[in-house]
Amino acid sequence: MRHGFVDRPARDAAEAVRLVCGIQAQEAAASRLGVRSRSAEATDADVLAAIEDRSVVRTWLMRNTIHLVAAEDAKWMTALLGPMIRRRFETVRWPQLGLTPDVLDAAAAVTPDVLRGRALTRYEFVDGLAEHGVPISPGDQAPTHVLVHLSAIGLTCRATDRGKDATFALLDEWLPGAADGPRDDDALAELARRYFGAFSPATPADFTTWSGLASSRAVELIRDELTPVDVDGRAGYQLGAVEPANGLRLLPAFDNYLVGYKERPFIDDRRRAEVYAGGMIRPTVLLDGRIVGRWQLRRTAGSTTLEAIPFINLTSRVKHALDAEVADVARFLGTQVTLVGG
């Protein structure tokens, strides 16, 4: 297991997201806690500053979900994964929302004029489209899906948040001078290399589950770099040496470890629905590679508490490790955190 949970080698947000080829960021606070799980130095304020200074950027990538990635990876990953995102929606969902090819093409044509020199919320952006002769219904999911399309073709990305509202900017303006990176098979090989480098041991099906892309060509491109291994009774691969990793870590909602594999033997079947609850993947307690509990932060005006919900009886060693993790969450957030439960 090489997710960086034990030694937490990343010095900053960019290194943390690069380590695992992007951290899922549909829940912004959870993605920042994902950096903490892989960096003993970064703070919540540091991650926000990295978004502000554009060393990391958020956009729709793997599995058509918002990811936080290193700035230098944004363009080549978008070029590689964008067609998969468009295929997912263009035959059914986008037509249901009135987003025909003509409408989407018209939106793309005027987007540079709408966003040039500024970042807008999705509804401000829709107002701008209307002013340029491209009306989009603001009352359903159409505004979001227009931005999914524009991000998938490499035109826009997410900028800094304005309070609780996401804003969007032109990718080339937000990341001026960013390298295009690899393309075509070179890009697919790089994505597969990054995946197996971070998630080994894993199967081709795991790569597909994580990325949303077919695995056969991806594995073929780096086959001479991979070592065949048994992965819980399934044929898989590892890239480089993989040593067992022990320790306790509080993983945030939607952590890569929880979404990056097709089969998830690291969680007891009796507890699976408590973690994978509909479209939500809850924060979990990871101990020696297995999920042994859940946790949640509760914030009020005067305090922050961390409630631990263990699935097992905790030994004194594990309780000590849990206390240390809670203290580190407090360090990361820059506030006192009180543990309850556990």
- Number of helices in the DSSP assignment: 15
Averaged pLDDT, please? 95
Adjacency order of strands in the biggest sheet: 9-12-13-14-15
Rg over CA atoms: 21 Å
Strand content range: 15-25%
Count of individual beta strands = 15
Kindly report how far apart the N and C termini lie: 25 Å
Largest sheet: 5 strands, mixed
Fraction of helical residues = 40-55%
- Gross morphology is globular
Any low-confidence stretches, pLDDT <50, length ≥5?
Answer: none
Helix- and strand-based class? alpha+beta
Q: Give the SSE order as H and E letters.
A: HEHHEEHHHEHHEEHHHHEEEHHEEEEEHE
Account of the 3D structure:
There is one protein chain. The strands form five sheets. The chain has a five-stranded mixed sheet with strand order 9-12-13-14-15, covered by helices on one side. With 342 residues, it is α+β, with helices and mostly antiparallel strands. It has 15 helices and 15 strands. The mean pLDDT is 95. Helix 4 (74-90) packs across helix 8 (142-152) and helix 4 packs across helix 10 (184-199). It starts with 12 loop residues before the first helix and ends with a strand.
Structure summarized in a few sentences:
The protein has 342 residues and is α+β, with helices and mostly antiparallel strands. 42% of the residues lie in helices and 19% in strands. It contains 15 helices and 15 strands.
